[in-house]
Amino acid sequence: MNTKKIGIDKINFFTPTLYVDMIDLAHARDTDPNKYTIGIGQEKMGINPITQDAVSMGANAALPIISKEDALLIDMVIFATESGTDYSKSGAVSIHKLLGINPFARCIEMKQACYSATAGIMMAKDYVTLHPGRKVLVIGSDIARYGLNTPGEVTQGAGAVAMLIAEDPRIFSIRDETVMYTSDIFDFWRPTYSENAMVDGKFSNEAYINFFETVLKEYQSRYSLDVASLEALCFHLPYSKMGKKAMANLLENVSETTKERFLTHYEESIIYTKNIGNIYTGSLYLGLNSLLDNAPSLKAGHTIGCFSYGSGAVGEFFLLDLVDGFDEHLLTAEHTGLLAARQLLTVAEYEEVFSEKLPTDGSTASLSSRFDHAPIQLVEVTNHQRHYDFVGESKE
Question: Do both 59 and 155 map to the same domain?
Fold first, then answer.
C-alpha cells in the first residue's frame, strides 16, 4: 500500500476572453445595481464566445500545467461537467488528444451538478494510492446559462479548473477522512431538452445551507474536528455571497479571532468568482485558486475545510493541507494577466454572443471569433461532430 501523501500537485483555471459588467447589466435590466453587486455579490460575468465550450475551456485550463513528463504519467483524465457536448462521447477523450496524454489512459466524463469534480478528485486519489508514481488529471468545466433577462442571469459564468492529482503533491495533500451526503431533491435541474437550467432559488439556498451544516456536523462527530483548527473554509460558490450565508450559524459559535480569520479568508476566496460568475463543477476549486493567489497569510501546514455541493443533491466536506513550498508553484501572475486581458462587452454585444448557435442539422460550420484569443478553440462542426485545434499558438 502506498503510504505517501496524495493531493493536488498543480492547479490552474481558465475563463474566456469576454465579460459583461454587472452595473451595465443592471441598468439594461432596469434594476438597482446594488442588487447585483452587493445583494448577490457579483461584479463581472464571464462570457464564452461560440469558439469556447466546456471541452475547449477544460483543455485550456489544463494546457499550462501538463508537461511532457506529466502527459506520460497520466493514467486517467476525469472530465466533470454539466455542460457536456455529447450524450455518449466523453469530453475527456478530446482533451486527452489535445494535450498529448499517454494513449494507455482511461478517459471519462462525470455528472452530478456542481459536485462531480470533487467525486473525480476522490476517485483520482484512490487510483494514485494504488498506483504509485502515476497521475490523474481532473477537470471541472462549465457554462452557467439561465437565459437572457431571467432571475438567474446575474449568476451566469463560464470557466474551467484543471488539477493534477499525484503523490508528494506540491500544493495540497488530501486528508483520507471525508463525509458525503445525498438527498433526492429538485432545487436546480436541467432536463435534457433544455439549454437553460431551471432553479427554485429560495429552496436551493435553503438546501445548500442545510447540506453544509449536515455534513460539517457529521464530520465533527466522526472525526472530532475542532473547526477553530482550520485556517479557512472554501465553498462551492453559485454566487459570491452563498458561502457566507452558509457560514452564518457557524460564525455565531466560534471565537472572534476565528470568525475574523474565516471572514478574511472568505473574501480572499471569492475574488475570482465575483469577476467570473458561477462555473458549476469548477466553482469550489476556482475559490481555492482565489484563496491561494490572494491570501498572503497562508502557510505550509494550514488546513482548509472544503464544502462541495451539487444540486439534486450531493454534498461533501473534506480537508486539504498546504504543503511546504506550495507558494512556489502557484500561477498567480498568469491568473491576474488572464483576467486583465479580457474584453468588456456592451450588453447588446453580450446578448448577441449569448444567442449565437452551432448547427444542429449536420451541416458544416467553420468557426472563428474576433473575441477569442485562447490557444485551444472549437474550430469546426461537421456531420454533428465538434473539432478542436490550436489556434494562433502551437502546442509547444
Answer: yes
- pLDDT at position 195 is 83
> What is the predicted pLDDT for the residue at 393?
54
Last residue of a domain, one of 305, 323, 341: 323
The verdict on whether omega for the bond into residue 158 sits within 30 degrees of 0, i.e. cis, is no
Query: Last residue of some domain: 297, 323, 349?
Result: 323
| 361/85 Cα distance (integer angstroms) | 15
Tell me, yes or no, whether 239 and 273 share the same domain: yes
Residue 40 sits in a domain whose CATH number is 3.40.47.10
| 246-281: burial string, b at 16+ Cβ within 10 Å, e else | bbeebeeebeeebbebbeebbebbbbbbbbbbbbbb
Regions of the chain where pLDDT drops below 70: 1-2, 392-396
Give the Cα separation of 56 and 44 in Å (integer): 22
CA 277 to chain centre: 10
Chain-centroid distance of CA 109 in Å reads: 15
Per residue in 298-335, pLDDT (tens digit) is 999 999 999 999 999 999 999 999 999 999 999 999 99
Q: Assess if residue 395 is contained within a domain.
A: no
Identify the pLDDT of residue 2. 56
> Which residues are identified as catalytic?
82, 114, 236
Distance CA 92, CA 89 (A): 8
Domain hosting residue 236, numbered range: 175-323
- Is 1 contained in some domain? no
Q: Which residues participate in the annotated binding site?
A: 32, 146, 245, 278
Please name which of 302, 263, 303, 304 lies closest in space to residue 284, comparing C-alpha atoms: 304
Does one domain contain both 168 and 181? no
pLDDT at 394: 47
Q: Which residues pair with 305 in a beta bridge?
A: 233, 319
Contact 112, 312 (CB under 8 A): yes
Residues annotated in the binding site for (3S)-3-hydroxy-3-methylglutaryl-CoA, as ranges? 32, 146, 245, 278
Alpha carbon dihedral 4, 109, 374, 15, in 10-degree steps, equals -80
55 lies in the same domain as 160: yes
pTM: 0.97
Residue 73's pLDDT is: 98
CA distance linking residue 343 with residue 335, whole number of Å: 15
Tell whether 180 and 295 lie within a shared domain: yes
